[in-house]
Amino acid sequence: DQQVKQNSPSLSVQEGRISILNCDYTNSMFDYFLWYKKYPAEGPTFLISISSIKDKNEDGRFTVFLNKSAKHLSLHIVPSQPGDSAVYFCAASFSQNFVFGPGTRLSVLP
Amino acid sequence: DAGITQSPRHKVTETGTPVTLRCHQTENHRYMYWYRQDPGHGLRLIHYSYGVKDTDKGEVSDGYSVSRSKTEDFLLTLESATSSQTSVYFCAIRITFPGQGRSGANVLTFGAGSRLTVL
How many CA atoms lie within 13 A of A55 on its CB side? Predict the structure, then answer.
């Protein structure tokens, strides 16, 4: 039973347009939500996080939105660049526990 | 660079042989984790440690053991490797970002991974 779900295994977007990656969770105990980016043959790298008491956090081209009532969060990348092509993992945490989703492969087409 | 080194980076072994993967950190962080990454499953927690000699199981701990005799080293052992343990293994440390929320955001920083193939 997955506590963190990413229902789109893949997404293709044109360069310069917006990429929207979605994530759903089931456990109300989670108090932080994180997004990671992973290139082939490398470890995941932290992108951006959001506390459960916020509904939006922005860092440059990346914005994360949290809808607690729907147990849903999304990552917006604007504008998308070819270098953003990677696998994106959504993660949720409480205390020392970090639970990851299965990932979404983003392809940004030039 | 959070100073995490995983070794070996690549290993091919045969079913039934023991395998040990090592994770080394240079920054004295308390929490260390072992995850495995498989297609369709994302990252799944095997074991984690919250201090020297203090460890706990994750969701996929069967067939794995860990040890942490020093703060800087966290070892993952497959006592008798099976083909289902073919995977990429990632070590992570927990760090805290100041200034985000009342107590700061806890974030995992990952090593580069160890690719294990069990034939």
Answer: 4
